[in-house]
Amino acid sequence: MSINTAPSADHVAIIMDGNGRWARHRGLDRLEGHIKGVDRVREIVRAAPGYGIGHLTVFAFSTENWKRSEHEVTGLMSLFRRYIRGEAMTLHEDNVRVRFIGRRDQLDNRLDTLMKWLERLTSKNNGLQLTVALNYGGRDEISRAVQRIARAVQQGMLQPDDLSEGTISNFLDTAELPDPDLIVRTSGEHRTSNFLPWQSCYAEYVFIDTAWPDFNVSEFVRVLNIFRNRDRRFGDVISL
Ligand code: IPE
Ligand code: IPE
Ligand code: MG
């Protein structure tokens, strides 16, 4: 077998879908699927650096997910708090830097405080750069960025003619991150559901049928290998 020398993905982003269906197929409450999903996040975070991944971004809750039942939304928010409390020290010891992207002002204070605490605790870590998209929506992110750009123009800090692609990137929640190389969506849906629309314009997408609670490290490796066999051209011609 020949050795694949194609570069591995530096920034992998994951739309972790299928928790609810996974639970329903087992006659369980949807929250049981989310709880199992958190175990998978822990495993993938641990494994990622071993596969050359520098940045991992996971979609945990979208700006559209508030439409769900109060039982599910409350359960998810309490699961996020429990995840932060339970994982903080391990993440810190593993040199993981954690950032959150998404809209903060709609989250309850207890969760927001924990998020800020974890970001501060891990802010100097230079291992895996883990980004959790929580109450994240790409259109919401772009709207907030445009508001801030408009304010900067109004205050004379920016000239309209100086606005470039780079300026827009710098005003997004992801300003400090490289664009994703690979976006994975689990559980059979072939859509992006408002995840990183600006940043993903040259990402490779891999859609797989496995539900997120079944997404183990060997599934992860399978997906990384699919990426390595893709030919990324960025508008250029094939290099033979
Ligand atoms: C993804 O799983 C997790 C969140 C959106 C919070 P889902 O809860 O969307 O699971 P399905 O798609 O209903 O199976
Ligand atoms: C996207 O999944 C959001 C997360 C994975 C957090 P959804 O399950 O909410 O997306 P749709 O509704 O199927 O498009
Ligand atoms: Mg879903």
Account of the 3D structure:
With 240 residues, the protein is an alpha/beta fold. The protein has one domain (11-228): Decaprenyl diphosphate synthase-like (Undecaprenyl pyrophosphate synthetase), CATH 3.40.1180.10. It is built from seven helices and six strands. Strands 3-4-2-1-5-6 form a six-stranded parallel sheet, with helices on both faces. It is globular. It starts with 10 loop residues before the first strand and ends in a 12-residue tail after the last helix. The model has no long low-confidence stretch (mean pLDDT 96). Bound molecules: 3-methylbut-3-enyl trihydrogen diphosphate (2 copies) and magnesium ion (MG). Residues 16-21, 61, 65, 76, 187 line the site of one 3-methylbut-3-enyl trihydrogen diphosphate.
Structural domain tally: 1
Fourth-level CATH superfamily: Decaprenyl diphosphate synthase-like
Strand line-up across the major sheet:
3-4-2-1-5-6
Mean of residue pLDDT values:
96
CATH fold-level topology = Undecaprenyl pyrophosphate synthetase
- Structural Rg: 19 Å
User: Uncertain runs with pLDDT below 50, 5 residues or more?
Assistant: none
Give the N-terminus to C-terminus distance in angstroms: 20 Å
Bound molecule kinds, no repeats: 3-methylbut-3-enyl trihydrogen diphosphate, magnesium ion
Top CATH class: Alpha Beta
CATH architecture: 3-Layer(aba) Sandwich
Describe the global form: globular
Can you give the helix content as a percent range? 40-55%
Order of helices and strands: EHHEHEHEHHEEH
Number of helices: 7
Strand content: 5-15%
**Main sheet: strands, sense, barrel:** 6 strands, parallel
